[in-house]
Amino acid sequence: MQFTAKQISDFLSGTIEGDETAKVTELSKIEDGKEGSLCFLSNRKYEHFIYISNASVVIVGEDFFPAQPVTCTLVKVKDPYSAFSVLLEKYNEVMNTSTKSGIEQPSFIHPSAKIGKNVFVGAFSYISENVEIGDYTEISAQVFIGADTKIGSHNTFHPGVKIYNRTVIGDRVVVHSNTVIGSDGFGFAPQPDGTYSKIAQIGNVVIEDDVEIGANTAIDRATMGSTFIRKGVKLDNLIQIAHNVEVGENTVVAAQAGISGSSKVGKKSVVGGQVGIAGHLSLANGTQIGAQAGVNFSITEENKQWHGTPAQPLRDWMRASVLFRHLPGLEKRMTKVEAELKNEAENSIISTTHNNNER
Asked: Do residues 175 and 239 touch, judged by C-beta distance below 8 A?
């Protein structure tokens, strides 16, 4: 597969600086650039690589002006990161043009299940009764789909995905390996004798269109009603979504985050890695939570950044962080001042005693 700089520029509606006939045959990181490779530069901390790179073409921002000579052809676009992601997607499509279809054996499909056209079912998969699967969906090996589950079209389920009964999944959803959708919510009622009685979890999980879910993530079914993953949500690996949670449209959640039961995260929010969100909270649209923050209260103001545990507005957290870094020095100063005050007090007592004795 070969493209010229001009073809790439035309596709991205960019402008060219350099040889428009320069040819590329592969995509690579800018630090690994070599002849025939296409790279991109969006983070200026990697700028030094562009001056030593052997890449043939590099996608850069419209505001980039090299401080040193470059040997590569530059394609200037408004947003180089987004532009390169579009090229990655197109490259992936070309490399995977042979869409799988058919039923591998051994696998089990219940006679009552309805399977759309050009669906692929990998070996050792299990599709239960009354399941509906839309067209062009790929179900890899060892996937389990529980009874009465409804799945739309053009979905991809990677090996080992487990989907419990009555789950509803839209179109163009990608679920990565070993994720569990629809497991019981964590509901137990304390008893007088100190034991816990399990509360039946009779709800389900609803996943809307264009969602991607990373590997080893767990999304619990609702106690009653539904746990909702709204349209366009992107979930990383190793995430816990508890019962009756609602994750708003186009929200992204990074790895090892946990959202407790019945909390609602607003649209276009960003949840950093290892963030913990307590139960029964509501987070406004556009909320951004920094890594390892702990949220134990509802957030009502939209498009605001929060950091720390307990979470606080970004500016407050930054001020507190500066003070925290100075605590060791402050402790030394306080210790010195206390010693000086103690010494002055002792000298004062000695002086007073001496004067009294003279009288």
From this structure: no
Lookup result for tokens 């035309």: 10
CA distance 61 to 236: 28
Is the torsion defined by CA of 335, 336, 342, 346 positive or negative? positive
| CB-side neighbour CA atoms (13 Å) of 338 | 6
Place of tokens 């947003």: 79
Which ranges constitute the DSSP H helices of the chain?
A: 5-12, 47-50, 80-95, 314-358
Query: Distance (Å, rounded) from C-alpha 221 to C-alpha 224?
Result: 8
Mean pLDDT, all residues of the chain: 92
Q: Which of 26-30, 56-60, 333-337, 345-349 has the lowest mean pLDDT?
A: 345-349
CB count, 10 Å around CB of 107?
Answer: 17
Concerning whether 307 is annotated as a catalytic residue, the answer is no
Which among 154, 158, 243, 307 is annotated as catalytic?
243
- The pTM for the full model equals 0.79
